Amino acid sequence: MTAGTAQTLVWDWTVRLFHWLIVLLIPLMWWTAEEGMMDWHRRLGLTLFALVLFRLVWGVMGTWTARFVPMIKRLGAVPGYVRDLFAGRHSPSFGHSPIGSLSVFALLAALSIQIGTGLFSVDVDGLESGPLAILISFKTGRDVADIHELNFDILVILIALHIAAIAVYQFVLKANLVRPMVTGRSSDVEPESTVTVRPVALLASVAIVAASLYAVMNAG
Amino acid sequence: MKTLRVKLVVPAVAAVMMLSACGDSGGSEAAPEASSEAASAQLPNGMTIKEQIEARQGQLEKVGDAFKAISDQLKASSPDIAIIQEAAAAVPEATQGMADWWPEGSGPESGVETDALPAIWENMADFQEKVGNMQEAAAALNTAAQGGDMAAIGEAFKNTGGTCKACHDDYRLDD
User: Fold this and answer.
1) A11, B84, B157, B160: most buried by Cβ count inside 10 Å?
2) What number of other Cβ atoms are within 10 A of residue A111's Cβ?
3) Helix, strand, coil % over all residues of chain B, rounded to 5
């Protein structure tokens, strides 16, 4: 709770850019689907594929606060952390809090399922389909599309929980989690590691994403 | 009699399972699933309502297969015209007599799982017209496909797709 005077860098720019692009793209994906603008749904979907894949790779070779292993290690602290929150005690974490780690894993899993099923989905008329649907039958593509639709509801629920949690931190615990996601910096925590983007890691991640995107787009 | 048979079957099945170490119990006699009275009611064409609904779903799935096959080829960098021709020929064949597939009573009120909306039977004339439009467009698509002109095929495919959508928008449960 004690505010250090120095602003600590907690989120690197790729994590922040990823986060806000997702915020922008999810409503657009919903809207293009509702309006039947499937060309745009496919284009934006491929953009999301690239973004989420990047985030998954970045969780392995990215900066410390982006990495999954430290987040997994914090999962054991979830019960204690939640107990403290209910008692009104909030000790800010450098990076994802224990419960925040859980939330990120759930959101990334739901996003991955959504994008993965989208790649294979086929519409009821057999007219529109994802870029990898060529590999499966109409019937299987329809079943996948059912999961795509069901999982979207799950994704929306997780997003609602995420926003509600941010609101609780803001108004109950008086901790602003939005600003650090914009500026990357927080005065609530001491640095436990540097979160400087290493050009080599960034280049390698982008290369993996570009290769995967190329493979998906040329599967036909 | 029945108990005797079961008594013989059980050790036989057990022996087979021990030999094959496979969990599939081939000997059990499952009771036939109780279906609702409406679902098993006879239609004038001799089918039960359940059979009618499943038959039309099967036929429309064939149309879906054909459409996906054409759509896949149209998206491919080098479309295989033979696949398009085969699929385009399958659509008129699969939709023959389509006007008769929705007899009175074969809607959701039958208790059988169907996405057909009651609106079909409330607007039967419009529904029939849309079915006719689809069959006409599908015939034109087949002609275009056998002609082999990709631009004409693309155009005819879009038209036919539009006739599918026209019906699904009004008469099929939105999913």
Assistant:
1) B160
2) 22
3) 65, 0, 30
Structural domain contains residue B39: no
Cβ–Cβ below 8 Å for A126 and B76 = no
Tracing tokens 């907690």 back to the chain, one arrives at A10
**Taking a C-beta distance cutoff of 8 angstroms, is the pair A184, A13 a contact?**
yes
Low-confidence ranges of chain B (pLDDT < 70): 1-37, 175
Using alpha carbons, select from B169, B143, B174, B165 the residue that is nearest to residue B63.
B165
Q: Is A87 helix (H, G, I), strand (E, B) or coil?
A: coil
Task: Find tokens 């696949």 and name the residue.
Answer: B83
Examine residue B17 and state whether it is found in any structural domain, yes or no: no
* B133 contacts chain A (CB < 8 A): no
Q: Do B164 and A149 touch (CB under 8 A)?
A: no
Tens digit of pLDDT for each residue in B70-121? 999 998 888 999 999 999 999 999 999 999 999 999 999 999 999 999 999 9
As for how many domains chain B has, the answer is 1
Kindly report the CATH number assigned to the domain that includes residue B148: 1.20.120.10
Residue ranges making up the domain that contains B95: 49-171
Query: Could you tell me the two tokens for A7?
Result: 């602003």
For residues A217 and A47, give the distance between their C-alpha atoms in angstroms, rounded to a whole number. Answer: 11
| Model pLDDT for residues A130-142, shown as the tens digit of each residue | 999 999 999 999 9
Q: Do A122 and B64 touch (CB under 8 A)?
A: yes
In a domain, B27, yes or no: no
Closest CA to B139 of B69, B90, B76: B90
Q: Which two tokens stand for residue A100?
A: 């925040």
pLDDT in tens, A65-110: 999 999 999 999 999 999 999 888 888 999 999 999 999 999 999 9
Alpha helices in A66-198 (DSSP H): 68-75, 78-86, 98-120, 138-171, 178-183
